[in-house]
Q: What sequence folds into this?
């Protein structure tokens, strides 16, 4: 009995030691000289290596931004590709410092898994894709349609709920594998294809004629995607959250990667505070006062990162939609730097 | 006694040599012996020919005639009429080979692979000279050289390249080579340990073997990569690639141990007794008499384990290592190329790669079996 209690005590010390060690993520990152970023192992537009093996994508740029803020070097990031199954374990175990892997922010993930979602860098949600020649302009016109959907996903549930609540009928064409779903849609086995909007755009470019398909405007579920950190390290949480806010604020203030050096001479007090010309706002987070300048210099503002990776500058051509600034009809909104 | 020549019914000349029956010689004979030797054989031959006639034209059209050989992006591979998009494989080949390894230092990978291949040929070719030197180079010098080349050594001007950017074919080959090289001696030791009369050694070996065989490889990898850091202090955590390397090696050793033990069990007791009667100690008894015979007996089993291990290395992708298959799996999503034919092309290429390696290993083992078992073959 005594031996067992000693073992438990040893385990508790180890566990406690591990938590204590994770308290100073900023110091660890600085000491290591690189940021460990949990990324998707391959998702078009969000995190995927290019021909040369360089990681690109919206989530990837977010990690580069954090590295720019903390280490003043956007290249000092180690990308650790994670699958949907092991991503949270990797974050909990300290294998990665931040998880920027299009994870959906939900209550159970924060409360049960001990995570904190720092921001929403992409508002996603379930949508529909149809052929242009069907002349459908709204999901509400899909009554009686056959719809391709992946089996056993929340997508399937949302679809059923949406049609029931709108008193419409549909015929589900269900497959276990997403590649089979997209193939069925491409060979006209169904009228519409439903999944999260970002994925709709990603799958669209795999079709024979991508231009003949259109994503309908309705979004029928909430899938806020964003970077997550471990609980228990508020300073690190702040850094990750404010990295996103800095990119949003920069877009709002018209500061871009190209003009950030000129903007250092700006008279606008908001810009001066953001770029660290006035005040020392990085200090509270353990960063230098020009932390936001480094972010914008490295990856640009949020709008630039969006357009480059998933928007008009990319093959995906996703519209800003909800991800536009609050002042332009979207819901991306950042607390001010002051 | 009458003279034979005067008897009418006795031949005076040898009968002319007739050709063998048409059905037992030549092309027809071969067909009959190999393809139509009985009703079942005939049915299966017809079915097989019908199957080939059914599949082959489409396959050849898809793989060669309709295939796209040159293109700058996925646009010309999109149409449903075209076949495999080999242009895409050509474009992505560096990524498949090296993953994210910095392109200006790729020669370091190439050099490691070339030197390794040369040493392997030296060791495996039956008539090559000075194999002891070759073995020393391969097992002692080469790992060091490979480590310095791949990982880098600032002092001689090779910048350090962390394992997080290693990927592609070369990581697949690295994991399997380490697994294969470690598992054979490891398996022999474990097998001898399991048959040992020393209780501690025996029980330790049994526990290790049974425990490792009792869990799936994927669990071992997952434990090594995500649970281990929970228990170790931050600075002790070993390299991300090293952990699956160790995991795969231990795993393969346990399987190898049982294969080798099978060979040891098959040895007649007389071999042990004969060797002991000659005054050989345990070490020399094993090394000179028992192991050479036992290992020869289980070559098919050993190679089977190697081939299984080679294919199992794809599982390291689960713990975030960018092996060849993962590289293929990711590259097909590239927006520049993505299209209906790209996934199929990528997977055909991956299948070819694995087939060539596994078939090569299999053929070499058959050749070794034949040449080592000359005394027992009739």
A:
């Amino acid at each position: 009995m005594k031996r067992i209690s000693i073992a438990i005590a040893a385990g508790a010390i180890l566990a406690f030691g591990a938590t204590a060690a994770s308290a100073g993520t900023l110091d660890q990152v600085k000491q290591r000289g690189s940021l460990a970023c949990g990324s998707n192992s391959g998702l078009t537009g969000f995190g995927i290596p290019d021909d040369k093996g360089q990681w690109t994508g919206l989530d990837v740029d977010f990690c580069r931004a954090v590295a720019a803020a903390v280490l003043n070097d956007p290249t000092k990031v180690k990308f650790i590709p994670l699958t949907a199954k092991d991503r949270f374990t990797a974050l909990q175990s300290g294998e990665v410092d931040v998880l920027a892997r299009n994870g959906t922010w939900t209550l159970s993930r924060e409360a049960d898994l001990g995570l904190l979602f720092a921001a929403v860098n992409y508002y996603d949600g379930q949508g529909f894709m149809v052929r242009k020649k069907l002349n459908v302009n709204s999901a509400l016109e899909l009554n009686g349609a056959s719809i391709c959907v992946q089996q056993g996903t929340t997508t399937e549930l949302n679809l059923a709920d949406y049609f029931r609540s709108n008193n419409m009928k549909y015929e589900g064409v269900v497959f276990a594998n997403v590649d089979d779903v997209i193939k069925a849609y491409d060979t006209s086995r169904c009228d519409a294809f439903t999944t999260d909007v970002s994925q709709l755009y990603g799958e669209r470019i795999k079709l024979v004629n991508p231009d003949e398909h259109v994503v309908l405007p309705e979004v029928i579920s909430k899938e806020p995607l964003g970077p997550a950190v471990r609980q228990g390290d508020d300073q690190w949480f702040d850094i990750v959250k404010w990295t996103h806010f800095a990119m949003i604020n920069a877009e709002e203030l018209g500061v871009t990667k190209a003009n950030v050096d000129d903007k250092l001479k700006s008279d606008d007090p908001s810009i001066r505070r953001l770029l660290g010309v006035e005040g020392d706002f990085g200090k509270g987070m353990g960063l230098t006062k020009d932390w936001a300048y480094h972010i914008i210099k490295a990856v640009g503002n949020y709008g630039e990162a969006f357009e480059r990776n998933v928007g008009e500058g990319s093959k995906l051509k996703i519209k800003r939609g909800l991800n536009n600034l609050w002042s332009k009809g979207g819901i991306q909104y950042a607390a001010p730097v002051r | 006694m009458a003279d034979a020549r005067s008897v009418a019914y006795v031949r005076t000349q040898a009968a002319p040599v007739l050709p063998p029956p048409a059905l037992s010689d030549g092309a027809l004979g071969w067909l009959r012996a190999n393809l139509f030797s009985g009703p079942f054989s005939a049915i299966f031959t017809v079915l097989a020919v019908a199957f080939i006639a059914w599949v082959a034209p489409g396959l050849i059209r898809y793989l060669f005639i309709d295939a796209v050989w040159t293109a700058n992006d996925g646009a010309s591979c999109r149409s449903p009429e075209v076949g495999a998009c080999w242009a895409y494989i050509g474009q992505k080949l560096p990524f498949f080979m090296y993953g994210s390894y910095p392109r200006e230092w790729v020669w370091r990978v190439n050099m490691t692979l070339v030197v390794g291949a040369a040493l392997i040929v030296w060791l495996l070719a039956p008539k090559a000279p000075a194999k002891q030197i070759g073995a020393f180079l391969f097992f002692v010098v080469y790992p060091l050289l490979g480590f310095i080349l791949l990982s880098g050594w600032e002092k001689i001007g090779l910048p350090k390249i962390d394992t997080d950017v290693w990927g592609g074919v070369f990581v697949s080959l690295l994991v399997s080579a380490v697994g294969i090289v470690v598992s054979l001696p490891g398996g022999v030791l474990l097998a001898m340990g399991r048959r040992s009369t020393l209780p501690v050694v025996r029980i330790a070996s049994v526990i290790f073997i049974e425990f490792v065989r009792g869990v799936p490889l994927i669990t071992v990898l997952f434990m090594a990569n995500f649970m281990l850091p929970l228990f170790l202090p931050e600075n002790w955590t070993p390299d991300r690639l090293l952990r699956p390397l160790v995991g795969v090696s231990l795993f393969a050793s346990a399987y190898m141990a049982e294969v080798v033990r099978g060979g040891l069990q098959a040895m007649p007791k007389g071999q042990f007794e004969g060797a002991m009667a000659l005054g050989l100690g345990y070490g020399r008894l094993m090394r000179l008499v028992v192991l050479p015979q036992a290992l020869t007996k289980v070559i098919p089993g050993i190679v089977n384990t190697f081939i299984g291990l080679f294919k199992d290395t794809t599982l390291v992708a689960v713990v975030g290592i960018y092996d060849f298959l993962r590289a293929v799996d990711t590259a097909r999503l590239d927006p520049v190329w993505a299209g209906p034919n790209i996934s199929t092309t990528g997977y055909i290429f991956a299948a070819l790669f694995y087939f060539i390696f596994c078939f090569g290993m299999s053929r070499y083992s058959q050749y070794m079996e034949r040449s080592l078992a000359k005394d027992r073959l009739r």
Chain A touches chain B at residues 14, 17-18, 21, 28, 41-45, 48-55, 78-83, 86, 89-90, 92-95, 179, 183, 186, 202, 205-209, 314-316 (CB under 8 Å). Residues 2-21 of chain A form the longest helix (20 residues). Chain A has a mean pLDDT of 89. The domain at 23-123+224-328 of chain A is CATH 3.40.190.10 (D-Maltodextrin-Binding Protein; domain 2).
